[in-house]
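Progress against Task 2.4 (sequence-to-structure conversion) is shown through the following example record, which the project officer requested during the mid-term review.
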Amino acid sequence: MKFAFFRRFFKNNDAVFEQIIRKHAQLLAEAAKRLDELFGNLPQRDGNLDRIISLEKEADRLVKDVFFLLDQTFIVSRMEKTDIEKFISTLDDTIDLIKKVARLARIKDSLVPRKEANEICHIIVEMTGMLNEAINAFYEGQLTRIKDYTDRIKKLEEQADSLTIEANQQLFKENPEVNLMLLWRDLLKSLEKTTDTCEDVMDIISSVARREL
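Structure tokens generated for the chain above:
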């Protein structure tokens, strides 16, 4: 019994962490696509919202699995335990934000789409797809490709910042009713924050990859 405990405690779980992180990133990418579809067809938003909530719950279970496994693991050879904690937590923050945006979009039945919000949703789809490619490149040892993904995601995040400013300027000019103004400001802020956390995930990958080069 005692030796079984030590075998479990000193077992290398890198492959399990890799599997969970890849899976979480895939859930994030699907949630981003669902959000994009939701904003592309706001009157029929409920189906996509329900799916996003389901994806977020599945992602939460993966986070719990990671932290449980970290508590049972003494040695992590590929990534430090703090890296894994930060990695999975930031991925999870991103899918949480997507759920928040989807729920906000449900508040007002007659919500009219905005071009800038739709464009930011397209950017989030592109960023989460790129994160999956970067994660695959990292685990497959293609570390020289990581800088390219980092640069591309940074440019996308800057595009999202510009679109957020543009949308807020346009809202000010339109001067809609107060409740609608506040709703759109919350939506735009959360969308922009989602692109920030995508960049944060990429920065974590880049930081770990640089140590291995």
